[in-house]
TrEMBL record:
Keywords: Disulfide bond, Glycoprotein, Secreted, Signal. The lineage of its organism: Eukaryota, Metazoa, Chordata, Craniata, Vertebrata. One of its GO terms (molecular function) is peptidase inhibitor activity. It comes from Gopherus agassizii. PANTHER family: CYSTEINE PROTEASE FAMILY C1-RELATED. Residues 294-334 are annotated as: Disordered. Residues 1-15 form the signal peptide. This is SMB domain-containing protein.
Length: 488
């Protein structure tokens, strides 16, 4: 303990010092450091620097947490900015303010107000010496993963680092993004396919195997809730590539839809696929290389970015771009369009026939909290979070690209059918990813609806027709974009 002054001397020096500083300084106007109590009361500050300064000395400071504290006599005024050990080390008296306890973590002591992040929750050291943590439901939940893997649910779960630290609310809000079409759209008259009822379809099918190189690599939607745009662009791209027999292989731009299809749409905050197909028909879009995706993170505005591509009519329903590509490295700004949508039968056999003859289709599905930890197997929603508070049990709507179907044998000897789909909200490793794709997508299997009344009921299929205008192919009417609604 360093006692340089007697108390009468101290108060005399203080009086002289205050009379010499008539103007109120920034330090005098600043709030005190210990209004809620002393943080890190056991820390060595004045003692560590052997600093006890007489009177007022604005240079007599020591770093203190996220600010500075003082070891001069002036600090001991009504509004104190003294270091925690000033009173005991310099004056030899107990602190006149409440001492806040620190918190222990990992064998170390942390001062009051210190913070750390536990997955998606911020924990703060409170004045009572305990960590006060937020209670958000996290997108990655270790208990949920363990429960799924222990149970007999037919699929495996895993922890994905790119989702770590996100709340479940953020996952639903930023990683999905499809709004269900209105009843008027979902109740369109069905168009029956010309199909032999006795025709036998294969037990397994994958569009990428039938049309190698023509089922294009999907893009990662990042934290943009734009699955409505990504899945629409992906399915339309595949259909154009397949039915032009590879003469045209455009990867259509989801950013063009996100930024320009703004009527009753919310861009990176969600949108409707029926509106996306309407925009493709009436306005058309360019390729992703011409108009690349830039709304990867959480944008404050609904569309994320202003529209940078316009087109004009050239007659007979065709459109021509009136602006250059936003990407200056690409010069081709050709517009691709589709024709009006119509509804197919909800017969899964007809859907399978459509997929096998014309290429990938688009599906709307209800997504639950366990969707984001899917790794392998036939996915279906599990009840493992049923005992948790309601904010741990969330769901939203997502649209995906269906590329095939298959079946597996369960341990009980039953045949379990599934759809093969690509979910653009996910980025884990997968079994048969193209080499250039890295971890930007996942091919995952959805339990087929009629195998269980609890999962993935298939209904309401919409189709549009794609026009091919480039010679020598000539005009053609091709199916584009069947929409399956998969509901849990």
């Amino acid at each position: 303990m360093r006692l340089l002054w007697t108390l009468p001397t101290l108060w005399l020096l203080a009086a002289e010092d205050l009379s010499a500083h008539r103007a109120r300084t920034r330090r005098e106007l600043a709030p005190g450091l210990h209004e809620r109590g002393i943080r890190d009361a056991g820390g060595s500050y004045c003692e560590r620097n052997d600093a006890c300064c007489a009177g007022r000395d604005d240079a007599c400071t020591v770093p203190y947490l996220d600010t500075i504290c003082y070891c001069d006599l002036f600090c001991n005024r009504t509004v104190s900015d003294c270091c925690p050990d000033f009173w005991e080390y310099c004056l030899g008296i107990p602190p006149p303010v409440v001492v806040l306890k620190g918190c222990d973590r990992g064998g170390q002591k942390y001062p009051t107000g210190a913070t750390y992040r536990e997955n998606c929750n911020l924990c703060t050291c409170s004045g009572n010496g305990k960590w006060d943590c937020e209670q958000h439901a996290c997108l990655i939940d270790g208990e949920m993963i363990d429960a799924i893997n222990r149970g007999n649910y037919g699929w495996r779960a895993a922890n994905y680092s790119h989702f770590w630290g996100m709340t479940l609310d953020e996952g639903i809000r930023y990683r999905l993004g499809t709004i269900k079409p209105p009843p008027l759209v979902m109740h369109m008259n069905e168009l029956q396919m010309n199909m032999d009822t006795n025709e036998q379809l294969p037990s397994h099918f994958n569009a990428a195997d039938k049309w190698p190189g023509l089922v294009l690599e999907p893009l990662d939607q990042g934290n943009c809730a734009g699955s409505w745009a990504f899945s629409t662009a992906a399915v339309a791209s595949d259909r154009i590539s397949i039915h032009s027999m590879g003469h045209m292989t455009p990867a259509l731009s989801p950013q063009n839809l996100i930024s320009c299809d703004t009527r009753n749409q919310q861009g990176c905050s969600g949108g409707r696929i029926d509106r996306a197909w309407w925009y493709l028909r009436r306005r058309g879009v360019v390729t992703d290389s011409c108009y690349p995706f830039t709304s990867r993170e959480k944008d404050s505005s609904p569309a994320g970015r202003p529209c940078m591509m316009q087109s004009r009519s050239t007659g007979r329903g065709k459109r021509q771009a009136t602006q250059r590509c936003p990407n200056p490295q690409t010069h081709s700004n050709e517009i691709y369009q589709s024709t009006p949508a119509y509804r197919l039968s909800s017969s899964e056999k007809e859907i399978m026939k459509e997929l096998m003859e014309n290429g990938p289709v688009q599906a709307i599905m209800e997504v639950h909290e366990d969707f984001f930890v899917y790794k392998s197997g036939v996915y279906r929603h599990t009840p493992v979070m049923a005992g948790k508070p309601e904010h741990h049990r969330r769901h939203g709507t997502h649209s995906v690209k269906i590329t095939g179907w298959g079946e597996v044998r369960t341990p009980q000897g039953q045949t379990q059918k599934y759809w093969v789909s690509i979910a653009l909200a996910m980025k884990p490793l997968c079994n048969r990813c193209p080499p250039a794709l890295g971890a930007a997508w996942v091919r995952w299997r959805v339990m087929r609806g009629l195998a269980s009344r609890r999962c993935c009921l298939v209904s309401r299929v919409l189709v549009t027709l794609q026009r091919c205008h480039q010679p020598p192919l000539g005009p053609c009417a091709l199916s584009v974009g069947p929409v399956l609604e998969l509901r849990s």
